[in-house]
Design goal:
homodimer; alpha/beta; six-stranded parallel β-sheet
Amino acid sequence: MGSSNILDNVGIVLVHTKTPGNIGAVARSMMNMGLSRLALVRPPRDRDNEAEKFAAGAGSLIRSAARFATLAEAVAGDQLVIGTSRRQGRLRQQVRSPRDLAGLVVPMLAGNRVAIVFGREVNGLERKDLALCHEIVTIPSDKAFPSLNLSHAVTVIAYELFVAVQATPPASRPALAGAEDLERFFRHLQGTLQDIGFFSEERPDRIMFSLRQLFGRARLEPRDVRILRGILTKVQHPSRPR
Amino acid sequence: MGSSNILDNVGIVLVHTKTPGNIGAVARSMMNMGLSRLALVRPPRDRDNEAEKFAAGAGSLIRSAARFATLAEAVAGDQLVIGTSRRQGRLRQQVRSPRDLAGLVVPMLAGNRVAIVFGREVNGLERKDLALCHEIVTIPSDKAFPSLNLSHAVTVIAYELFVAVQATPPASRPALAGAEDLERFFRHLQGTLQDIGFFSEERPDRIMFSLRQLFGRARLEPRDVRILRGILTKVQHPSRPR
């Protein structure tokens, strides 16, 4: 209660989980750390109620979990979307640590909803799902045996958020632009770059991935999106008055 | 390897665990966080090899685990014995947090062996076992639902130790674009916006201030600046090949 209420603005999103027991263990860990909002994208069938068994009393989180067909729908109402990834891909130079992430997220929670997205066991998030994330967090682990169990990964992130909330008085931060607004901006940006022939030599994907990460890190406010889209419109239609 | 070798001097001791699967999940988590030494006091029978299944590749830790009849025997060779407990009993006023514990333990590891002791699921360590511990650590959790899964509790402690060991050498981060580069980019941006008539109605200052803040938060790397300036050049000279 009290200061930990702001953790209701954190959503844990599990994408294409394979094992129902892991969803249960995640629910338990979330409830231990004061998190309440669980979203499931393409969850597995669970004929034996295995998730409830592993939830050990946190079954209410599973029963109240929102279910979605795509990650884009699951995060449509969130201002900041954070993907978890253990691979340090070529385009993911700026990964955050869980502690760093908690320091970023907790002061924002007063006025924003934040989603933290976990991919399926073994493979993690696919590239198309990572592209929807504004920041990437990587849990440190031993290079010789780096792959964490899904509920262990959630435990580390949730623990860091819980500790940071306990340590930090709530602050007021400006509300950021929502994920839907951001997607419209990215489509507008890609369309404009196509109009001016920017993609002539290479496929848009790599450039757009970099631009998504770049503007994701910028934590755009609604006014920023208006300015940027105003610029794009002016580039597309130079003679039209603003 | 390298600096994480000193984690070989940390032992995880599980007392009277009920569920073999939890021992497997603990082994996996230990190996993720560079821990290698597992001791089992009165472990459960495991006819179905459930522990190996949950270990997901860390079965070697279970097979090489030392087995004991009492906690006193298990910690006989350790210099510091730390008990985990979630209850704040009358005799346990001075509990440490996991982070505090890591700060205490890591500097000692060069010349000492440290045991961290976890009791059985649900009830935790009994009083007689807690009495053998020199320090008590409590994992923070929500008062309304405080009881962590055993492997989740080990994950939090092992993660804090791993992070504390890693914190010794400086972390390598990608180099960000320098201030001079950024200024050149901002001048290029302002010039381009002037070229396309974006500032017709208002002075550039306010807009440029917002754009500077926005791109400042994005922590631009040199490659990001190249992409953005490539876009600006294309806007200024649409027909010039890139």
